[in-house]
Amino acid sequence: MNLSPLQKARYEYSPKLPGMLRNGIAEICVKEGSETQSVADQDKIKALFPNTYGKKEITFQKGQNTSAAKKQVVGVILSGGQAPGGHNVVCGLYDALKATDKNNVLLGFKGGPSGLIDDKYIEFDDAFIDQYRNTGGFDIIGSGRTKLETEEQFKIVTEVAKKHGLTAVVIIGGDDSNTNAAVLAEYMAAHNTGVQVIGCPKTIDGDLKNEDIEASFGFDTATKTYSELIGNIERDANSAKKYWHFIKVMGRSASHVALECALETQPNICLIGEEVAAKKMSLSQIADQIADAVEKRAAQGNNFGVAIIPEGIVEFVPEFSALIAEINELLAGKKTEEFNALPSWEAKYDFIKKGLSKEAMAVFEILPQGIQQQLFLERDPHGNVQVSLIESEKLFAEMVKNKLEERKAKGTYKGKFGTQHHFFGYEGRCAFPSNFDADYCYSLGYNAFMLIQYGYTGYLSKVSNLSKPAEEWVAGGMPITKMMNIERRNGEDKPVIRKALVELDGKPFKYFEANRDKWAVETCFTYPGAIQYYGPASVCDLTTRTLALEKG
Ligand code: FBP
After folding, report:
1. Which of 176, 243, 284, 433 is the most buried (most CB within 10 A)?
2. How high is the pLDDT of residue 388?
3. 80 in ligand 1 pocket by Cβ < 6 Å?
4. DSSP secondary structure code for residue 499 in this structure
5. What's the rounded Cα separation, in Å, for the pair 479 and 483?
6. Average pLDDT over every residue of 58-69
7. 113 shares its domain with 242
8. How many whole angstroms separate alpha carbon 507 and alpha carbon 476?
């Protein structure tokens, strides 16, 4: 393997554990808290999880380790999109497992949840693990988006577990994967398999958080990476003074990533999907809001600026979601073939016009042609529009341009409007984890093994008090059922972990709201610079503004 100087140096980094886990395995004991209840729909969740519901929250503390000695064979999978720090979860799990008993075994199932079904795995050893310490990516075993959710899959997993003598499975994933971890834990308990299931909270999107889980791992590094790039662009914009930059950032649904980047970089505009939905804003109203800022800045001679657009924005615009729903319907089943066979865009446009309602067509008509075509070309395997592929940064740039031309014609606007577009997503998902993510992830993995060793199942590895130095972090576990409620999914009532959207009365949004009018018109850019790995803790160990505001 070719190693960069930073990679070599990062191998030497010792991730910081919470103080209570630092005294060695022999001195970690459990303090049980009170029994838990699900956040809503208690009776229904209890009925669905008779073996794993209502268990106690637990915290680890310094004291005589009283866990039963038993050989552990643990399987681990990475599930869903990459997030910086995933390798350290595996390393922390491995180190705790080997420190407890060197005969314990850690198997990594490859390519995500499907690895557990197809029985594709490797057994980790020191030499292999050491190549991945403190590095980004999920390439240690790969990841995938197969969902482990059906009874049939659980039966196969039980067989695979039996074959290897697995005592536990650790699932590193987002809200869906951890929901499925809870269902698998219940299945394993109900069938007396003796296999425990523990989850770890992952996603750069930051939407797996609640009163127990303060942050999902990867959010810190990904947002720092995007903020560095946005800050660089702001400085370029402020130097050249000739472009408005429209920057889309990842976040499939919630706008936490966009909001954090805005708090870090103070751009002129940042759209927040949750606010757009709450105010039922139309595309035209959003474009007007941006055009107002462009116009005010132009009046001061500032024909440049930066606008952050969250990836999931269009789904929050009610009229746009209604349009998408109609398009999905219009092309359902065989109608896609019929549509694709039409000889020209004009013929296709005619087909669309006949098929859509008047309201949907009115929205369709205001979209730039490139976006219109995208809506019909980029489809997922179920034939649905792939909303995350819509180039919303271009959509809004184009719509704002049209608005400004109208204003120019009326004589109210006299500026220049040159645009550049960017999409920051994959750039941040495999970055070297920040010190925060390196420490947090290692702690989550280490802690996950302690939960296994103490016999818990259906728990999420929980490390909290994260806005404080690692020494003061609190390690423990929370029954996943505590975070669940019933939601409608694909026409059925399902028990799920509630996805955390941006709270409009939360401190991070309130701070943004209190400052954004000034940021829109003045040039208040801040330049966070690159993630720092070495140097004073006040620079290197800082976590997100979101966490600082929420917990500060
Ligand atoms: P997870 O929810 O699995 O953590 O993935 C999040 C994410 O990075 C989103 O921000 C983005 O929309 C999506 O994954 C992209 O997925 P893919 O890697 O399949 O293109």
Report:
1. 433
2. 79
3. yes
4. P
5. 8
6. 94
7. no
8. 26
Asked if the structure places residue 181 within a domain, the reply is yes
Residue 303: which CATH number? 3.40.50.460
Residue 378, pLDDT score: 67
pLDDT in tens, 125-146: 999 999 999 999 999 999 999 9
Atom of ligand 1 nearest to the CA of 79: 3
Tokens of 241: 């003074």
> Which pLDDT score, from 0 to 100, does residue 489 have?
78
Residue with tokens 């889980």: 213
pLDDT bin (cut points 50, 70, 90) of residue 380 is: confident
The CA distance from 364 to 353, in Å, is: 9
What does the alpha-carbon distance between residue 315 and residue 321 come to, in Å, rounded to a whole number?
5
pTM (global) more than 0.85: yes
Residue 80 alpha carbon to ligand 1 centre in Å: 7
The DSSP element (H or E) to which 531 belongs, if any, is none
- Do 53 and 175 sit in the same domain of this protein? yes
Task: Clarify whether residues 101 and 183 are in a common domain.
Answer: yes
133 Cα: distance to centroid of ligand 1 (angstroms): 23
Residue nearest to atom 20 of ligand 1 (CA): 81
Q: Residue 466 in contact with residue 473, Cβ under 8 Å?
A: yes
Distance (angstroms) between ligand 1 centre and the Cα of 451 equals 28
Q: Which amino acid is at 338?
A: E
Distance CA 442, CA 430 (A): 16
Q: What is the mean pLDDT of residues 492-511?
A: 95
DSSP secondary structure letters along 144-209: B-----SHHHHHHHHHHHHHHT-SEEEEEE-HHHHHHHHHHHHHHHHTT---EEEEEEB-TT----
Residue nearest to atom 10 of ligand 1 (CA): 251
| 414-430 per-position pLDDT tens digit | 999 999 999 999 999 99
For residue 287, the one-letter residue type is A
Q: Which residue has the tokens 């536990």?
A: 168
Instruction: Kindly state the average pLDDT of the residues 512-522.
Output: 98
The pLDDT assigned to 328 comes to 87
Euclidean distance between CA atoms 247 and 230, whole angstroms = 8
For residue 180 and ligand 1, the question of a CB distance below 6 A is answered with no
Please check whether residues 184 and 116 belong to one and the same domain: yes
Tell the residue number behind the tokens 């971890």, with chain if given. Answer: 181
What is the distance between the alpha carbons of residues 492 and 489, in angstroms, rounded to a whole number? Answer: 5
CATH of the domain at 122: 3.40.50.450
